[in-house]
Amino acid sequence: MKLYISSDMEGVAGVCAWEQVDARRPHPDFAIYRRYYTREVNSAIEGARAAGATDVVVNDAHGPMRNLVLEEFPDDVRVIFGDRKPFSMVQDADGGFGGAFFLGYHGAAGDADAVLCHTYTPSVIYELRLNDIRCSEATLNAALLGYYGVPLLLVTGDRTTVEGVQSQMPWVHGAIVKTSIGNRAAASMTPAAACRSIRREAENAVRDAATAQLFSLQPPIVLDAQLVTASQAHLIATIPGFKRTSSRSVQFTHDDFRVVFKAFVASFRLGALA
Amino acid sequence: MNLYISCDMEGTAGVSSWKQCDPSDTHEYPICRRLMTLEVRAAIEGAREAGASRVVVNDSHWSMRNLLFDELPSDDDLQVISGAPKPWSMMEGLNAGANAAFFTGYHAKAGDAATLAHTFSDAIYRVTVNGTACSEALLNAALAGSYGVPVVLVTGDRAIVDETIRALPWAVGVAVKDAVGYSSVNSLTPQAARAAIRSGAREAMGRIAQARPFTFEAPFELTIETAGVEHADFIELMPGFARIGSRAVRFGANEYPALLEAFITATRIAAAADA
What distance in Å separates residue A252's CA from the closest CA in chain B? Predict the structure, then answer.
């Protein structure tokens, strides 16, 4: 089975502050935590391979999307590295994959007890909904996988994130590596214990892949985004096809989910300029 | 008579370099914003002498808060649109209620051998509508045209004035300077430029009866060639844009305002690629 991994960093065991995960403003902690992050991804690969996964593609999905310590990976893994990918956290997920993992994921903007929760761009996106379903990054990304026919098999991160995904996609295996205490603290497993748990759940997830379902949205797909500020909505509403639904919200509708996904990426890139 | 004025800065007499036009500059910009303001004032005065009453001035340069209110007329019939970003950018506030439009301080399009030539942003290498290469003046004139509003006065450097008058032969052009190079000009003095603009504005008001709204024919097709591949990458994210080359995108619309809005938004998201 070909496996697609989208890996984020905020949901890695021990992580509870931006300094630990911010490659743009290097803090001594970043060098430590990028290794924990890499090890969690590696553990998931090991578990998946123990259950029969063959080709593995890892998309470093944590901005600036070049955080993984590549020399710690097995030689036969492909890595998608670098930012500004049009499909961002789920770039190149349409290559005939039998399943996907979301590792190190975090809560949606506005989630209580979810360390570093946000939805793509914290300064722009206040809340995202697709067909009136409240979306975390995992929800949005899983919908693109669903469009491609790829089922989500495993999610790892804090309790709020994992349980949030499982409430929308009950077939997804989860490895809860920490319980968030508000937005900047967590009761966490040690990195080593988290890796063991992730390895075990990855193996179970691939073994149970036949029972996984697709998370797909029925067209027409309606994207509703609430923005942090009115000036962001003002600018985003000028993207072709977008309409302003209130002072701080916009809506976009299209039948093709790929168009919706790219439009969302365009909206937060433009919104960041407002 | 209701008059709409979109005023830019690069085409002001005496202006030859970006430093003069950059609001963060503390030496040359304060001088040039005053020159810009006084040219706008000359256009308003000339128009009023020929019958204009209500005037809306849209500050259309950079931060879009360049005009010095103390140097403008202070009557109740003058309205000034300031600040950025504005969805319609250089044409914010234009609607069918205007009888005519003036473009002052305009400059040549990206790629022209002319002073400070560009089209909205340095990320734009070339823009066409229905196959015609467009300057800011032409893009904006077509928006005015879609509301039935004719452009009757264009002031700026000779390159933009001559090109625009070829497309809008009913309009009055006031060329306040010739390009020597990208950052050098052979210019009228500011005083002479103001006198020419004032008299051109008077003449332009007399042309309104025979002037025509400038329009492209529907359906409208926009192509944008970008300076870098990264700019096209970002524009292509937006619905309706098709990638037609590594540095080129296309967008189609049945209504011209939708096309111009898409273009303006494209220039913004392209700027995000430089962030």
Answer: 10
Taking only the tens place, the pLDDT of each residue in B165-186 is: 999 999 999 999 999 999 999 9
ipTM of this model?
Answer: 0.84
Chain A: residue nearest B233 by CA?
A86
Q: How distant, in Å, are the alpha carbons of A240, B60, B116, B132, B239 from that of B251? A: 10, 24, 27, 14, 9
pLDDT score of A25: 86
Q: Which residue has the tokens 């009913």?
A: B170
- Enter the tokens of residue B195: 């006198």
Distance CA A198, CA A194 (A): 6
From the list A234, A259, A269, which residue is nearest B269 (CB)?
A269
What are the Cα distances from residue A219, in Å, to A157, A167, A253? 30, 22, 9
Residue of A nearest to B262 (CA): A240
**DSSP E strand stretches across chain B:** 3-7, 55-59, 78-81, 100-106, 124-129, 132-133, 151-157, 172-181, 184-187, 220-226, 241-245, 248-253
Contact B229, B246 (CB under 8 A): yes
Q: How many helices (H) and strands (E) does chain B have?
A: 7, 12
Quickly list H helices, B120-255: 136-146, 158-167, 190-206, 229-235
The structure's pTM equals 0.91
Q: CA B185 to CA A268: how far, in whole Å?
A: 41
Interface membership of A274 toward B (CB under 8 Å) = yes
What 8-state DSSP symbol labels residue B74? -
Residues of chain A with pLDDT under 70: none
Q: In whole angstroms, give the CA distance from residue A243 to residue A234.
A: 10
3-class SS string, chain A: CCEEEEECCCCCCCCCCHHHCCCCCCCHHHHHHHHHHHHHHHHHHHHHHHCCCCCEEEEECCCCCCCCCHHHCCCCEEEECCCCCCCHHHCCCCCCCCEEEEEEECCCCCCCCCCCCCCCCCCCEEEEEECCEEECHHHHHHHHHHHHCCCEEEEEEEHHHHHHHHHHCCCCEEEEEEEECCCCCEEECCHHHHHHHHHHHHHHHHHCHHHCCCCCCCCCEEEEEEECCHHHHHHHCCCCCCEEEECCEEEEEECCHHHHHHHHHHHHHHHCCC
Which of residues 62 through 121 in chain B touch A, CB cutoff 8 A? Answer: 85, 87
User: Tens of pLDDT along B111-150?
Assistant: 999 999 999 999 999 999 999 999 999 999 999 999 999 9
